[in-house]
Description:
The structure is a single chain. By secondary structure, the protein is mainly α. It has one domain (6-184). The protein has helices at 6-16, 45-61, 67-80, 86-102, 104-115, 125-128, 133-140, 153-184, and strands at 29-34, 37-42. A two-stranded antiparallel ribbon has the order 1-2. Strand 1 and strand 2 form a beta hairpin. Helix 4 (86-102) runs antiparallel to helix 5 and helix 4 (86-102) packs across helix 8.
Amino acid sequence: MTTMTLRDARAEYYRANGFAADGGDSEDWVPIKLWKLTVNIPNGKARKAAVKIHDLHHVLTGYQTDLAGEGEIGAWEIGSGCASVPVAFVLNCFAITVGMIIAPRRMVRAFARGRASQNLYGRPIDELLDLDVARTRTSLVVDHATPRALDFVAPVALALPTAAFWTALVLGPIVGVIALIGALV
Length: 185
């Protein structure tokens, strides 16, 4: 049986998804695509550190980089306990919100899978890259999730306030402008 390190698997993941060889680590801003809208967000030190682990989680779980796949990896990371890494938690809350809109069942399954798994957050990246992919999957219990009856509650509970925030952020100024025009007319 051939073994593959997380380093090699991550390099293949970057190639397969059209990412730079460093996964975008050298970029100051990164594009986030939401359907036809692209938003650039700052690629600060905390985000860079979180994404290095996040990308290894993609490798280990097999979740894709499309909108649904990012929602799934977000649900899995939240389920497996990423709250101690605030930037990962916040970005995952946004991802799971989009995921609950386009593929709610997949988000629930991914969250349940995460609840039964461990993740790599809190471990030094340099110590992880030479680990064997198959052994790491086994040690994190990535493939042995048994959904529990209430595993659907957390994705919904996380998605609703995040969706409300973005709705208010987008609609608030529009309502304000309409009210101002109404007052002036």
